[in-house]
Amino acid sequence: MLSLSGIWTKQNESIFSIMSREALRHQAINLAQGFPDFDGPPEIKEAACSAILSGHNQYAPSPGLPELRHMLAEQQRIRYDISWNPESEVTILSGATEAIFCTIQALCNPRDEIISFEPFYDSYLPSALAAGATLRTLPLRAPDWSWEPEDLDRMISPSTRAIILNTPHNPTGKVFSRQELEILAELIRKHQIWLITDEVYENLIYDNCQHHSPATLPDMQERTITISSTSKTYSFTGWKVGYLFARPQVSRAIRNIHQNTVFCSATPLQKAFLASPPPESPYYAQLKADYCRRRDLLLGILQDCHFKATAPSGTYFIVADYSAISDLNDDEFALYLSREAGVACIPLSPFSLNPEKARQQRLLRFAFCKSENTLHAAGERLRKKTAPGTA
Ligand code: PMP
What we know:
three-stranded antiparallel β-sheet; seven-stranded mixed β-sheet; alpha/beta; Aspartate Aminotransferase, domain 1
């Protein structure tokens, strides 16, 4: 019998695909997958159409259009006061997902280890496995998602190649503080390992919170691969234009993998992002204000419906504890809500290396990147099916 790679035959379908399919089957309101039900800036859409119509339809240079790399380097300079060489240190890929995959392949040899906080974004594990590496995790403790530096220090061994840090953090909405990042940076320097940062929610930060890009900490630019994306900031998740910043040697290795897998991200869509609002544009404050309103709306709805939840400082997700409503495991309760209430969300257990244990924590993730009408409609439906002890 012809055989297949063990890694990929053992990978299950992603929870996002499963819950979106369930949402469709029950015509549920989809607060599961993190994509907006509205489009981003019209000027970016128009720029994409005009790029296609004016003939920008062939392969782009593999590391990305030079003018977009310049623009991204300039954004980093303005936002974080850090300078990257657009020729050798900025690379455009097909989404942060590809950036994470290529980075892990570039850094890791078989039997290396990568450490992430848990819950973790689901693509980290298969990316590590594809490189023959192992993912180890340090759980963030609910409800404030705290962690002990000594625990992380103890986990780092001679096999550890990198820590992958997601801030602002999906699914918890945690934004790592400057102090936490300084502790992390100290461990990275002490153990001489890499830091991969996943900053795709860098522009979705609320209240008085601030996003600190870890590469800006002392000596960290040398050891950090900074990954971000246009998906969340401009509400075009289906365009898959992501990017990363890294020193030339590591950029070269990552570009090699990108060149031999995807080769280049879609040319007219790269062109379109040249029309992005500049960092000083009011667009970004408006984006935050709009999301802050949606966050508060969904939070109020969930609290009314007997969920326990607090306001996240970043991202467009709320984690809610449903233990007052049901004793079901999180995947069973998420299926119940989709089927009976007609509202889809994501159980938290698939973000864990030990889903059996995590299922009993009774936590769900709801996305608020939806119009206020959609959120109100979800509230109407939830109210009917979430009385204490219903399920
Ligand atoms: N990292 C995190 C934490 C995410 O939530 C997502 C999107 N869901 C990605 C990476 C992937 O982003 P992209 O659409 O650019 O591939």
